Amino acid sequence: MERFDVVVLGAGSAGEGIATTLAGRGRAVALVEQLRVGGECPYVACMPSKTMLRSAEARSAARRLDQLGGASAAPRLDGDDEAFRAAVARRDEVSEHRDDGGAAEELAEAGVVLVRGPGRVTAPGVVTVDGRELAWTDLVVATGSSAVVPPLDGLDLVPTWTSDQALSAQERPASLFVLGGGAVGCELAQVHARFGCRVVLAEAGEQLLAREEPSIAARLADVLRGDGVDVRLGVELDRARPSGGGARLHLSDGSSVDVERVLVATGRTPTTDGLGLEVLGIEPGEDGELVVDDRCRVAGQLHVWAAGDVTQKGPYTHTANYQARIVSANLLGEHRTADYRAIPRAVYTEPAVASVGMDAATAAEQGLSARTAVMDLGETARAATEGAGGGRLVLTAVDGVLVGAAAIGPRADEWLAEATLAVRARVPLEVLADVVHAFPTFGEAYEPPVRELAGLSV
């Protein structure tokens, strides 16, 4: 039996970061992974999706080149199929053709023992991988999440994609039905629409991005419709049937849609099945997540930790990286606790949607008396120079400090960092109101609503 200070299950962003950090501090670490080092983000999620979004954005901007003064007339572009192939080629280059060889080499150089295969706890203090026994003093579970495919009538009989499959596919469907109006559904709907695909997006709820500020979600729906996406809210998929090599979909509003392919974007579930955690007396929470304390230690355990999507604290790579730092610090003898009040959320459509903290409705649910203030980004000078309009910033404050912000606008994912810092550090509104922003920038949009919330003259 091989002995390690720490065995990490899952080599995604969290697991890889923890293993590398601990090995760098002299700990004996084994990292167990049955697919790719780096997890999904570099290969079939974050990196390929943002690369495709950038290509789609560039193609959309080229169509407006004359409106932006870059040409006297709109340029003639090549066909959608040719352009899509070029975008896919760039996507695969950025995602290293889904080859984790380089990442695996870096782990070895860092002193981490990489064990390929499915890991399972077979006894207290022991993980077994295809018959290979690894003894541990501390165990870290960082197994991520997997796509949820709902058991809808006939869905298993028609051509479908999960997001992972869509972001590794080579072909461009002529028509696509997107099931789910969360971040993934919205991003991939825009990508395919901008490459000439007929896209229908159905969301069972009354708005896209169910947990986000309603007015921001409504603006995003308008943006997608402007790109040609048929956005249907409050509509569910009742049943699916094969039809002409594709699918005929019957919806809850009585309509039917014929498409070449269905993209299932109905969420993800923590990956805990088959890990043998019951051997340690660990029972996942109601949604399958591992319940952790503020140090990322699994509830009821002294030497079992968890980080990343499996904890359901925020389905983002940056959350996983944050938790990796917390776990690493605690395993190295420090005392670090996590604070999730200011974990940013982003949808990388064009324009982007970004938010942090809570909105007024969430504050009310917590018994807090919140105030909000709104700014139309079209009123900024930068919107005029960029040729961009229709953006919006909503700020929420409680007791003289910012507790939340939500925005839709060009590169909102970047300039919302100011609000993220303000929420995390509990910066007084009076201080925020005294911040000077460069002119002309979208950051200036903060000034009127912050002054309003601070009770200062606008």
From TrEMBL:
Pfam families: Pyr_redox_2, Pyr_redox_dim. This is PF00070 family, FAD-dependent NAD(P)-disulphide oxidoreductase. Residues 4-323 form the FAD/NAD(P)-binding domain. Transmembrane segments: none annotated. It comes from the Bacteria. The keyword Chloroplast does not apply. PANTHER family: MERCURIC REDUCTASE. NAD(+) binds at residues 180-187, 203, 267. One of its GO terms (molecular function) is NAD(P)H dehydrogenase (quinone) activity. Residues 343-446 form the Pyridine nucleotide-disulphide oxidoreductase dimerisation domain. Binds 1 FAD per subunit. FAD binds at residues 50, 119, 143-145, 309. Belongs to the class-I pyridine nucleotide-disulfide oxidoreductase family. Its cofactor is FAD. SUPFAM superfamilies: FAD/NAD(P)-binding domain (SSF51905), FAD/NAD-linked reductases, dimerisation (C-terminal) domain (SSF55424). Keywords: FAD, Flavoprotein, NAD, Nucleotide-binding. InterPro entries: FAD/NAD-bd_sf (IPR036188), FAD/NAD-binding_dom (IPR023753), FAD/NAD-linked_Rdtase_dimer_sf (IPR016156), Pyr_nuc-diS_OxRdtase (IPR001100), Pyr_nucl-diS_OxRdtase_dimer (IPR004099). Disulfide bonds join 41-46. The keyword Ribosomal protein does not apply.
